[in-house]
Amino acid sequence: MKRYNTFIGQQYLKILKYLTDKRKNISFDYKNEIEKYRKASDLKTMNYLYEVISKKKINIDKPIVGYFCKTIPEEIIIAVGATPLRLCNQDIYCAEIGEEIIPGDICPVIKAICGYLQNDIKIDLLVIPATCDGKTKLAEILTPIFNDRIYFIDIPRNSDYIENIDLWESAYLKFYDYLKNRFKAKPSRKELLSVCKMTNKRTEIFRKIYQLRGEKTGIINSFDYFILTSASFYLSPSDWSEHAEILYKELLGKVVKQNYRKRILLAGSPIIFPNFKILEIIEDSNCYIASDILCSGYGHLFDPVKIDEETELGIIRALTLKYIAPNLCPCFLGIDKLLNAILENMDKYTLDGVVYYNLRLCNVFEIEIPILKDILKNKGIPLLVLKTDFSREDIGQLKTRLEAFIEMLK
Q1: Which residue has the higher pLDDT, 226 or 69?
Q2: The dihedral of CA 151, 154, 155, 157: what is its sign?
Q3: What radius of gyration do the chain's Cα atoms show?
Q4: Which stretch, 4-18, 182-196, 332-346, 386-400, has highest mean pLDDT?
Q5: Cα 148 to the chain's mean position, in Å?
Q6: Hey, which of 11, 173, 250, 354 has its CA 20 to 30 A from 336?
Q7: Which residues, in sequence order, are bridge partners of residue 264?
Q8: Is the dihedral of CA 385, 389, 390, 393 positive or negative?
Q9: In angstroms, rounded to a whole number, what is the distance separating the alpha carbons of residues 90 and 272?
Q10: With 0-12 CB in 10 A as exposed, 13-18 as middle and 19+ as buried, what is 162?
Q11: Residue 225 contacts residue 185 (beta carbons within 8 Å)
């Protein structure tokens, strides 16, 4: 990178290389966790999806484009003949290794990402969006590892459509052109349109499962649901849709035996395997997550590509309306969208309360809590905020708080 062609830049690069060369192989085996959650399942289709997560099944016959955050459009990555791989990580062991690079009170997800990428992972290109301060700095920190294999996409964090659509379009078009040159691909408009139809099929089946889950208490437990959504990080949209369709048919024929005490909506920080601590606490309290609005599942799969004009520019514009305009992340301006999503789901599925999961040291999630508390209180909607990290020392305390919340709902 040009900024290192100075004396100070060269010294900085040496420091970063020293830090990132302190590699450790991450060999922690999550088979026990996988088996524990798999045994809690009564759905045959889930066996394959648990296998996907366990072995991180991904198509390695094509170039792999790793990315963070739901704002990166998978469609244009697939259109140029590459495989998108979402690298968002919530592994406590990866976070511990990441502390060698970025020590201190930093977002544990950013630490986990650094630790995860220290392992030998074949990534042809790493795409990092400027969706939060941590990811913005991450692009610079990881430069010694990936050098010219990093693409930084700067997206305005104002989710107002009218004010920012031209900037969004410009960023996505620039990214698309870069991918074409990088992988020497010339996808036609029809090829891009075909990929959009494929991801829309995925959205269609996800919405069916999402709605069934909200309407029929106990139809799918929390572990199965979040393994299902996490599998979309690895599987192609068509493969995921195929198995999700089989799962949906199995759910339709399922006889529900579990009697849950209360039905809740889960909001806040993303939940990604193996960090299922919050799910364990909620399931152990016999409370049913009937709905969620997390970016790791709902935000990734719920919105379709709505194409009004089938030109390349029209498709790119439609992609910005899928990935950026409806964004509920607190890193973006537009808390009204989050509130509307909560109120809509609470009303549609007749839920008893909201559990807001706040991952410690991710301050933007914490900032919006007072506003949520005030508005939901005025609407008569009970809210519980659970603040924690990847460790398991506070499980007892969190269970006690959840039990008190459930008793209050009675």
Answers
A1: 226
A2: positive
A3: 21
A4: 182-196
A5: 25
A6: 173
A7: 289, 353
A8: negative
A9: 6
A10: exposed
A11: no
- pLDDT reported for residue 11: 61
Q: State the average pLDDT over residues 205-231.
A: 96
The identity of residue 33, as a single letter, is: E
- Cβ pair 102, 138 in contact under 8 A: no
Alpha-carbon torsion, ordered 293, 298, 300, 301, to 10 deg? -160
Q: What is the pLDDT of residues 300-342, one digit of tens each?
A: 999 999 999 999 999 999 999 999 988 888 888 888 999 999 9
**pLDDT reading at 8 higher than 80:** no
The pLDDT > 90 percentage for the chain reads: 60
Of the candidates 163, 173, 162, 188, the one whose C-alpha atom is nearest the C-alpha of residue 81 is 188
Phi, psi of 106 (to 5 degrees): -115, 155
Tell me, what amino acid is at 51? E
| Residue 311 tokens, joined | 């030109």
Question: So what's the pLDDT on residue 315?
Answer: 96
d(CA 60, CA 243): 20
Q: Tell me the C-alpha distance between 366 and 406, whole Å.
A: 22
- Report pLDDT digits (tens) over 99-119: 777 777 888 888 888 777 766
Kindly give, in sequence order, each residue whose CB lies less than 8 Å from that of residue 265, ignoring residues fewer than 6 positions away.
289, 290, 291, 292, 293, 342, 345, 346, 349, 351, 353, 354, 355
